[in-house]
Specification:
The chain is mostly helical. Helices cover 43% and strands 5% of the residues. It is globular.
Length: 153
């Protein structure tokens, strides 16, 4: 390992690393993943697709594949990946697609509820941060970087 790499690793391990946006609550609220589980998605070339994704693709104004619509950011965000990437804080968005606009408040409340259930289920490795002091505490308690995930609401 070069001296630059060692310096970069040291700086990263001491830094407070904040990811400012994730839509992972969509998959969590749909019951397709848990935050504590490392999610492995099927490669696009072998994925057989789903009727849900095919129908949704036809209803969207943007050109995303059925694969992208189905998996979204699954396989990118979970506590094991927060640990490995040295993430100190993760902001999770409450986002909904057009299919939920008939009852947006209910969907938003469902997403908030699943978020809080996941935090409660993983208090040994994460904490709910509502202030900058909470983020600093998470870093100090090692509830971030390679030893734990950190989530901010």
């Amino acid at each position: 390992m070069s001296q630059v790499s060692e310096r970069a690793i040291d700086l990263h391990s001491r830094a407070v690393v904040i990811d400012g946006h994730s839509d992972i609550l969509v998959a969590m609220a749909d019951g397709r993943m848990r935050l504590s589980d490392r999610v492995q998605v099927e490669p696009p070339e072998t994925w057989q697709g789903a009727a849900f994704a095919q129908e949704r693709m036809m209803a969207t104004p943007y050109q995303l594949s059925a694969y992208s619509l189905w998996f979204g950011c699954m396989g990118q965000y979970d506590i094991p990946r927060f640990r490995e990437g040295g993430v100190t804080a993760q902001v999770m968005a409450i986002y909904m697609g057009e299919e939920h606009l008939g009852a947006p408040l209910q969907r938003a409340l469902d997403m908030a509820a699943v978020f809080h259930r996941e935090i409660e289920a993983n208090l040994d490795t994460v904490l709910l941060a509502t202030t900058a002091a909470d983020i600093r505490r998470a870093k100090a308690e090692n509830k971030s970087e390679r030893d734990a995930g950190k989530i901010e609401n």
